[in-house]
Design a protein that fits this description.
This protein is mostly beta strands. The chain has 2 helices and 11 strands. The chain has an 11-stranded antiparallel β-sheet with strand order 7-6-5-4-3-2-1-11-10-9-8. The longest helix is centred in the C-terminal third of the chain and has 17 residues, at 137-153.
Length: 154
Protein backbone atom coordinates (compact mmCIF):
# COMPACT_ATOMS: atom_id res chain seq x y z
CA UNK A 1 0.00 0.00 0.00
CA UNK A 2 1.37 3.41 -0.94
CA UNK A 3 0.55 6.67 0.77
CA UNK A 4 1.57 9.70 -1.30
CA UNK A 5 2.66 12.72 0.72
CA UNK A 6 1.49 16.13 -0.49
CA UNK A 7 3.91 18.48 1.25
CA UNK A 8 7.59 18.90 1.97
CA UNK A 9 7.00 18.38 5.68
CA UNK A 10 5.30 15.16 6.79
CA UNK A 11 3.81 16.95 9.81
CA UNK A 12 1.98 19.41 7.50
CA UNK A 13 0.79 17.12 4.70
CA UNK A 14 -2.03 15.06 3.31
CA UNK A 15 -1.38 11.34 2.86
CA UNK A 16 -3.31 9.98 -0.14
CA UNK A 17 -3.95 6.51 -1.51
CA UNK A 18 -2.82 5.54 -5.02
CA UNK A 19 -6.27 6.45 -6.37
CA UNK A 20 -5.88 10.00 -5.00
CA UNK A 21 -8.28 9.69 -2.05
CA UNK A 22 -7.03 11.52 1.05
CA UNK A 23 -6.50 9.05 3.88
CA UNK A 24 -4.67 11.07 6.57
CA UNK A 25 -4.03 14.74 7.27
CA UNK A 26 -1.20 15.92 9.53
CA UNK A 27 -1.33 19.54 10.68
CA UNK A 28 1.12 21.57 12.76
CA UNK A 29 0.20 25.23 13.07
CA UNK A 30 3.30 27.41 13.37
CA UNK A 31 3.93 28.51 16.95
CA UNK A 32 7.08 29.40 18.82
CA UNK A 33 5.96 27.55 21.96
CA UNK A 34 3.25 24.97 22.53
CA UNK A 35 3.31 23.53 19.01
CA UNK A 36 1.01 20.55 18.48
CA UNK A 37 0.88 18.15 15.55
CA UNK A 38 -2.52 16.57 14.93
CA UNK A 39 -2.96 13.52 12.72
CA UNK A 40 -6.46 12.71 11.48
CA UNK A 41 -7.73 9.77 9.45
CA UNK A 42 -10.22 10.74 6.74
CA UNK A 43 -13.44 8.74 6.92
CA UNK A 44 -14.12 7.25 3.45
CA UNK A 45 -17.20 8.48 1.60
CA UNK A 46 -18.04 11.14 4.19
CA UNK A 47 -18.74 14.53 2.69
CA UNK A 48 -20.48 17.21 4.74
CA UNK A 49 -22.97 19.62 3.20
CA UNK A 50 -20.24 22.30 3.27
CA UNK A 51 -17.98 20.08 1.12
CA UNK A 52 -15.55 19.05 3.86
CA UNK A 53 -14.80 15.47 4.80
CA UNK A 54 -15.28 13.89 8.20
CA UNK A 55 -12.18 12.71 10.04
CA UNK A 56 -11.20 10.74 13.15
CA UNK A 57 -8.39 11.93 15.37
CA UNK A 58 -5.59 9.37 15.35
CA UNK A 59 -2.91 11.09 17.41
CA UNK A 60 -1.51 14.37 18.71
CA UNK A 61 2.06 15.30 19.52
CA UNK A 62 2.63 18.14 21.98
CA UNK A 63 6.18 19.22 21.19
CA UNK A 64 8.36 20.27 24.10
CA UNK A 65 11.51 22.38 23.89
CA UNK A 66 13.61 20.72 26.57
CA UNK A 67 11.77 17.42 27.13
CA UNK A 68 10.47 14.60 24.99
CA UNK A 69 7.20 15.28 23.19
CA UNK A 70 3.91 13.99 24.58
CA UNK A 71 1.89 11.61 22.42
CA UNK A 72 -1.87 11.25 22.80
CA UNK A 73 -3.15 8.19 20.95
CA UNK A 74 -6.05 5.83 21.64
CA UNK A 75 -7.13 7.91 24.66
CA UNK A 76 -3.74 7.50 26.34
CA UNK A 77 -1.02 10.06 26.81
CA UNK A 78 2.64 9.04 27.02
CA UNK A 79 6.04 10.64 26.59
CA UNK A 80 7.41 9.75 23.18
CA UNK A 81 10.53 8.48 24.92
CA UNK A 82 8.36 5.74 26.48
CA UNK A 83 6.47 4.96 23.25
CA UNK A 84 9.47 4.85 20.90
CA UNK A 85 12.03 2.62 22.54
CA UNK A 86 15.16 1.03 21.19
CA UNK A 87 13.34 -2.27 21.52
CA UNK A 88 10.20 -2.81 19.46
CA UNK A 89 10.16 -1.11 16.07
CA UNK A 90 11.37 2.17 14.63
CA UNK A 91 12.75 3.76 11.47
CA UNK A 92 16.27 2.76 10.42
CA UNK A 93 17.24 5.37 7.84
CA UNK A 94 14.19 5.51 5.60
CA UNK A 95 12.90 2.07 6.50
CA UNK A 96 10.62 1.02 9.35
CA UNK A 97 11.63 -2.41 10.62
CA UNK A 98 10.78 -4.56 13.59
CA UNK A 99 13.63 -4.10 16.02
CA UNK A 100 14.13 -7.73 16.92
CA UNK A 101 16.06 -10.65 15.44
CA UNK A 102 13.70 -10.87 12.45
CA UNK A 103 14.26 -7.21 11.35
CA UNK A 104 11.14 -7.54 9.18
CA UNK A 105 10.53 -4.58 6.86
CA UNK A 106 7.25 -2.84 7.74
CA UNK A 107 7.42 0.32 5.60
CA UNK A 108 9.83 2.25 3.39
CA UNK A 109 9.87 5.99 2.70
CA UNK A 110 10.70 7.22 -0.79
CA UNK A 111 11.43 10.95 -0.30
CA UNK A 112 12.03 11.69 -3.98
CA UNK A 113 9.09 9.68 -5.24
CA UNK A 114 9.63 7.32 -8.13
CA UNK A 115 10.21 7.88 -11.82
CA UNK A 116 7.63 6.22 -14.02
CA UNK A 117 8.93 3.71 -16.56
CA UNK A 118 9.74 5.35 -19.96
CA UNK A 119 8.68 8.77 -18.68
CA UNK A 120 10.30 11.84 -17.19
CA UNK A 121 7.37 12.13 -14.77
CA UNK A 122 8.27 11.61 -11.11
CA UNK A 123 5.66 10.80 -8.48
CA UNK A 124 5.26 12.62 -5.17
CA UNK A 125 7.18 11.29 -2.18
CA UNK A 126 5.47 8.24 -0.73
CA UNK A 127 5.42 5.85 2.18
CA UNK A 128 5.28 2.25 0.99
CA UNK A 129 3.63 -0.03 3.58
CA UNK A 130 4.56 -3.68 3.07
CA UNK A 131 1.88 -6.35 2.59
CA UNK A 132 0.58 -7.71 5.87
CA UNK A 133 0.99 -4.45 7.81
CA UNK A 134 -2.09 -2.55 6.62
CA UNK A 135 -3.86 -3.25 9.93
CA UNK A 136 -1.41 -0.94 11.75
CA UNK A 137 -1.39 1.87 9.19
CA UNK A 138 -2.35 4.40 11.90
CA UNK A 139 0.72 3.44 13.95
CA UNK A 140 2.98 3.54 10.89
CA UNK A 141 1.79 7.02 9.84
CA UNK A 142 2.11 8.37 13.40
CA UNK A 143 5.63 6.92 13.75
CA UNK A 144 6.64 8.29 10.36
CA UNK A 145 5.41 11.82 11.13
CA UNK A 146 7.18 11.80 14.51
CA UNK A 147 10.50 10.52 13.14
CA UNK A 148 10.45 12.93 10.18
CA UNK A 149 9.92 15.85 12.57
CA UNK A 150 12.89 14.71 14.68
CA UNK A 151 15.07 14.36 11.57
CA UNK A 152 14.11 17.86 10.43
CA UNK A 153 14.85 19.36 13.85
CA UNK A 154 18.36 17.85 14.01
Amino acid sequence: MRLYISGKKAWNSTFSAENGDAMYVAQSPKKVFGRTTTINRIVPSSVHACGGKESDNVAQFAWKTFRSARLRMRNKEVRTRAFYKKKGWHFHGRRLRLNNDSRILVARYHPKGQQEFFSAKVTKPFLDIMPGWKSITDDIVVSFVYIEKLVEDD
